[in-house]
Amino acid sequence: MKSHGLTHPGDTAIAAKGWLGAHKWLLARRLSQALVVAVFLTGPLFGLWIAKGNLASSLTLGVLPLTDPLMVLQGLLAGHVMTGSALIGAALVLVAYTLFGGRTYCSWVCPVNAVTDFAQWLRTRFGMEKGVVLNRNTRLWVLGGILVGSAATGTIAWELVNPVTMLHRGLVTGSIVTLGSASLITLAVFCFDLGIASRGWCTHLCPVGAFYGLLGRAAVLRVSAVNRSACDDCMDCFAICPERHVIAPALRGAAKGVGPLILSSDCTNCGRCIDVCSKTVFRFDTRFHNASLDKPSAESGVKAA
Amino acid sequence: MAGHHKTGGDAVDQNRRAMLAGTVKGACTVGLIGALLAIPARRRAEAVALRPPGAMAERDFLAACVRCGLCVKDCPYDTLKLSDLGDGPTLGTPFFRARAVPCEMCENIPCVAACPTGALDKGLKDIKNAKMGVAVLVGQETCLNYLGLRCDVCYRVCPRIGEAITLEMSHNARTAKHAFFIPTVHSDKCTGCGKCERACVLDEAAIKVLPHDLATGQLGKHYRLGWEEKKKAGASLVEPSPEVQVRGMEGVEMSPGGTYKLDRRPDGGLKEFKP
């Protein structure tokens, strides 16, 4: 039963809520990620222009500019102050992710997430060991590295490697089907995550995620273990979470008087913990609502049962 | 000192050591990533392909261009492409190949208007002032005009006909009775649009658009063109030559600059000249 839980986290939830109920947020995220590509494709494919550009910088419906603030920052360090529309676009992105959780970018927008999630899904199914263990703070140092690299070379340095923009560019221009930068870098990330380090890229190395994590330190939208007294310690949320260290303080904090909100900016708001929990412990909430449904009597009752 | 607070001191020591180790590891990561990125980034000084109109100098361009492809999307002729592996220019940046699809020099310059970052300079209002590159007649052994024919196609298709490319006539010594009409590019007028390269009738174009730095020479900053300096100053800047006595001109007055003032005789001869 235990090994079953490790290789098939979420099975209990499927039994309790049905397959759709146990994959609600996953499906919503995949839909969101697909839309982020699709809005760029309707123009070239059907002549219906919604968004032009790519994740680096885009123009939606001819009026809404959106620009990756990390790109603007690298450009600035490389010696170029970007012009109006890029700055407005970056400001809008900053505000959006400050509200909705910085790393929401990772799980709801970034196309690489689907690739590394797939690698992790295979790892779990194959019952593979963790592989090379990396420190998750490495990504912050990598972020420092790309900023230093930009300043030292006078170019937007991370764009020479960035799998996020390369894959998205490949998807929206169609170059993904060639043996070009998009397919090769994506293959490299997939092989790294599957064969070398468990959740190696997104959770440990990617400086884009690290950057958005910093943006989301005060994010309003958060996951809350609001119904934590119902937890039966099945560990499925820990097994499925890409940043499992974020769960424990909220889920197990009742005794220490810690609120049920997952406040770590490492949380990507992916909602998989909500999906795989058969006891409906988690839900999306705002950071202003850090109270649980804990009722001491009810809690002890559940534990006793 | 450590002896006084042995256990506490050890803990602090261990903490300090762990912190130091963490910082060293982190700094090494920064150094590693920085160095690895610098390797491809440093190899970028000159463009090997043509940039869209209004593009900043290559060095500045790579600090400004975010590779979003908005210029590519708004190019109505599909001239511009984003670079991928093997194309030459830095990954993801916009470029075009004149022989494939040249720049049509749109009057409203939509690619520049689309650029969100300023990598394409919005100060470029007149496409005639674009400097995407310079056409160079590299194939002087194969160009039909150089062979003495009147192909003239590059001259004819040039959007700045008679300005950016002119046909310069010279004597054809091979036949002794014909003329060469040599297509000659004037770099101050050429926009680098590439229509000449596209239209060249040869299997491999004899005229090619090259990035500005590759196509043009550069005089040393200390060079001065004497004839222009003279025009600016209104007179020669060089001291007149000292008088040199020419045989037969003895006693004839010399004007400043060293020429003799000579009067003509009624028969057309020179009065003062006494051979």
Description:
The complex is a heterodimer of chains A (305) and B (275). Chain A is mainly alpha-helical. Chain A has helices at residues 2-7, 11-21, 24-46, 69-78, 84-100, 104-109, 112-126, 138-153, 163-173, 181-196, 200-205, 207-215, 236-240, 247-251, 272-276, 296-304, and strands spanning 51-54, 57-60, 64-67, 221-224, 283-286. Chain A has a domain at 50-216. In chain A, helix 4 packs across helix 8, helix 8 crosses helix 12 (207-215) and helix 9 (163-173) packs across helix 10 (181-196). Chain A starts with a helix and ends with a helix. The relative contact order of chain A is 0.14. Chain B has 275 residues and is α+β, with helices and mostly antiparallel strands. Chain B is 28% helix and 12% strand. In chain B, strands 1-2 form a two-stranded antiparallel ribbon. A two-stranded antiparallel sheet of chain B has the order 3-6. In chain B, strands 4-5 form a two-stranded antiparallel sheet. At the A-B interface, strand 1, strand 2, helix 4, helix 5 and helix 8 of A face helix 1, helix 2 and helix 3 of B.
SSE layout and pairings?
The complex is a heterodimer of chains A (305) and B (275).
Chain A: H1 2-7, H2 11-21, H3 24-46, E1 51-54, E2 57-60, E3 64-67, H4 69-78, H5 84-100, H6 104-109, H7 112-126, H8 138-153, H9 163-173, H10 181-196, H11 200-205, H12 207-215, E4 221-224, H13 236-240, H14 247-251, H15 272-276, E5 283-286, H16 296-304
Antiparallel strand pairs in A: 1-2, 2-3, 4-5
Chain B: H1 6-42, H2 58-64, H3 70-74, E1 81-82, E2 94-95, H4 110-114, E3 134-137, H5 153-157, E4 165-172, E5 178-185, H6 195-199, E6 207-210, H7 212-215, H8 226-233, E7 254-255, E8 259-260
Antiparallel strand pairs in B: 1-2, 3-6, 4-5, 7-8
